[in-house]
């Protein structure tokens, strides 16, 4: 049983008065002391002190309409360029809306209290308080179809391959328009950060690819390649003396996809593994509804997704992502210098070899154990 003093070892709550001259790290460390502010401060320190060690491979999942709100440019691109995010699983919608900015198309601050019937009559689309012209959708659709019809796209490929190729063309468009660092797809292409989509048909990108299939396009998304490549990223990190950390922005299918890498390795492929080492989630989802979005790190332990020995190094912050994510990024960028880019996109073959060899070895070991032993015959 813990002694009384064990419960009282934490620092005294005795903050300095806010002056208005504080940096983000000073504000977080001095004033974010309890409740969800306290959890966000814990998350900032977990990410900065442990997850950003050079040997940790950081995967991020992204849900919610973050890129239309500008977080691609303000938050995600600086983190990618600093080497703080090594691979990504995102909704297709975030990547589709990200493309607007790389194509020089405008998104505007609006109001959540507008009349939506009037907006529709005027050809204005609303994402809560973000407004944009309906022509933005049509222009982006046309661009996606034009690029996806090119010869290099006429094959089966993982979503990481598709997004890498698309990001390269968006970079070219940015250069032609005289703009830069507007699209996270473009920056991920430059930095070799693979981006996967767990539900490639569930977005306007997938919808346009589906339209082209009716016209005879041979482009197909290989979802099995996505499952195996993401698992290979995690196993390769762990097998080469490193650790795996997950930064979960929101929940949904991308959250599951970034976490299911460990059950895929352990349960399906039969490779001995223990789970992700670090887990940091910013979410507004509750755990008591039974949804994956709100499932806790301790629940993830029961699935083999999180290493039970590393459960103390997990944090969930119940705060709006548009508030918590930029604070986390500002804290980390102020506290840590850039990491060397891992450029995992260009190492996919190497990582897949590690996974494939481990799978075949584990399968051979299982088969050997299951093989019936010969029965000794008596003379």
In short:
With 379 residues, the protein is α/β, with parallel strands linked by helices. The protein has helices at residues 24-31, 35-51, 71-81, 92-102, 116-121, 134-148, 159-177, 184-191, 204-214, 223-239, 252-259, 261-268, 297-302, 321-335, 348-370, and strands at residues 56-62, 87-90, 108-109, 124-127, 130-133, 156-157, 195-196, 220-221, 243-249, 278-283, 314-318.
Tags for this entry?
single chain, six-stranded parallel beta sheet, Deoxyhypusine Synthase, three-stranded antiparallel beta sheet, 15 helices, alpha/beta, 379 residues
Structural overview:
- By secondary structure, the chain is an alpha/beta fold.
- The chain has one domain (16-367): Deoxyhypusine Synthase, CATH 3.40.910.10.
- The chain contains 15 helices and eleven strands.
- The chain has helices spanning 24-31, 35-51, 71-81, 92-102, 116-121, 134-148, 159-177, 184-191, 204-214, 223-239, 252-259, 261-268, 297-302, 321-335, 348-370, and strands at 56-62, 87-90, 108-109, 124-127, 130-133, 156-157, 195-196, 220-221, 243-249, 278-283, 314-318.
- Strands 7-2-1-9-10-11 form a six-stranded parallel β-sheet, with helices on both faces. It has a three-stranded antiparallel β-sheet with strand order 3-5-4. Strands 6-8 form a two-stranded parallel ribbon.
- α3 (71-81) packs parallel to α8 (184-191) and α10 crosses α15.
- It is globular.
- The model has no long low-confidence stretch (mean pLDDT 95).
């Amino acid at each position: 049983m813990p002694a009384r003093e064990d419960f009282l070892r934490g620092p005294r709550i005795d903050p300095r008065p806010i002056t208005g001259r504080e940096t983000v790290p000073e504000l977080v460390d001095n004033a974010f002391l309890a409740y969800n502010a306290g959890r966000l401060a814990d998350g900032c320190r977990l990410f900065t002190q442990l997850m950003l060690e050079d040997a940790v491979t950081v995967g991020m999942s992204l849900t919610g309409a973050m890129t239309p709100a500008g977080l691609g440019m303000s938050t995600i691109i600086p983190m990618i360029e600093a080497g703080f995010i090594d691979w990504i699983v995102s909704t297709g919608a975030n990547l589709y809306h990200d493309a607007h900015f790389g194509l020089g198309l405008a998104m505007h601050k609006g109001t959540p209290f507008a009349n939506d019937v009037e907006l529709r009559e005027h050809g204005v689309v609303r994402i809560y308080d973000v407004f944009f012209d309906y022509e933005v959708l049509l222009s982006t659709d046309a661009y996606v179809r034009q690029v996806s019809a090119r010869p290099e796209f006429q094959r089966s490929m993982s979503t990481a391959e598709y997004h890498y190729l698309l990001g390269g063309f968006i970079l070219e468009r940015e250069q032609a328009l005289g703009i830069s660092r507007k699209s996270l797809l473009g920056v991920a292409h430059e930095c070799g950060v693979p981006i996967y989509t767990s539900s490639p048909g569930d977005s306007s990108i997938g919808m346009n690819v589906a339209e082209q299939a009716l016209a005879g396009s041979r482009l197909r998304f290989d979802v099995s390649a996505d499952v195996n490549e993401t698992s290979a990223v995690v196993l390769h990190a762990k097998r080469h003396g490193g650790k795996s950390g997950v930064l979960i922005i929101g929940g949904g299918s991308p959250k599951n996809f970034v976490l299911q890498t460990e059950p895929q390795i352990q349960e399906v492929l039969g490779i001995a593994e223990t789970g992700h080492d670090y887990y940091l989630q910013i979410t507004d989802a509750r755990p008591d509804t039974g949804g994956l979005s709100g499932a806790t790190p301790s629940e993830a332990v029961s699935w083999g997704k999180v290493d039970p020995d590393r459960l103390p190094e997990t944090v969930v912050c119940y705060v709006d992502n548009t508030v918590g994510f930029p604070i986390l990024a500002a804290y980390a960028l102020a506290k840590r210098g850039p990491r060397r880019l891992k450029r995992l996109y260009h190492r996919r073959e190497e990582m897949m070899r590690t996974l494939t060899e481990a799978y075949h070895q584990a399968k051979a070991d299982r088969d050997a154990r299951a093989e019936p032993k010969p029965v000794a015959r008596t003379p």
